[in-house]
Design goal:
The protein is of the alpha/beta class. It has 7 helices and 6 strands; from the N terminus they run E-E-H-H-H-E-H-E-H-E-H-E-H.
């Protein structure tokens, strides 16, 4: 069972916590991680690309020139795909790229991503993060103290001061424990968890 230290924002160790083997020390399933990330990226695609087909292009009602006797190739409409400004053949149209995969696979992928972070010692647990005011500079000082730049910060609930203090920092993403996902876990180098969020994650995945 993994045991991690719990720190305060001054990087002083205040206690320890035992993490669940089934969540933070599970077997890493790379195939499940791949499938879930592919699903998340597909679901985020807008799918709004659109092109005009022959029937959608304006004009072209009159035959450009007579069928024979001009020395040019026969042509019936300026809306033809071979004409400049004509319709597009087999072009993209609005569509939904999203698909779903079994909940069991999604849960296995999330456990795998968390276990990978724990195995690589990329998880930090904070006792709390007191902020008297919205201050990006103070938030950045804490991250520098721990030596992290690319970090996913997981809260146990709403915290307006922390969320607004971090929103202008590049390489930092703040989310609540119920929104934790595979794509963000592998996108950011480090994972910082508030102590109560550990129990929330374990409760959801156990």
């Amino acid at each position: 069972m993994p045991v991690l230290d719990i720190y305060d924002i001054d990087k002083n160790k205040v206690s320890e916590v035992e993490l669940s083997d089934s969540v933070f020390a599970a077997e890493v399933n790379e195939a499940a991680i791949y499938e879930v990330v592919r699903m998340q990226m597909a679901c985020s695609r807008q799918g709004t690309a659109n092109t005009k087909e022959r029937s959608d292009v304006s004009g072209g009602g009159k035959k450009p020139w007579r069928q024979k006797g001009t020395g040019r190739a026969r042509s019936g409409s300026t809306r033809s795909p071979i004409w400049r400004g004509g319709g597009i053949v087999f072009g993209p149209h609005p569509r939904d790229y999203s698909f779903s995969i079994p909940r069991k696979v999604r849960k296995a992928a999330l456990k795998s991503a968390l276990s990978l972070k724990c195995r690589d010692q990329k998880i930090l647990i904070l006792k709390d993060f007191p902020m008297e005011e919205i201050k990006t500079k103070k938030f950045k000082e804490v991250l520098d103290r721990f030596g992290v730049k690319s970090v996913l910060f997981v809260l146990d609930g709403a915290n307006e001061k922390l969320e607004k203090s971090s929103q202008n920092l590049q390489g930092v993403k703040m989310m609540r424990s119920e929104g934790i996902n595979v794509y963000d876990l592998i996108r950011y180098d480090h994972l910082i968890l508030m102590e109560p969020s550990v129990k929330n994650i374990e409760g959801a995945l156990s």
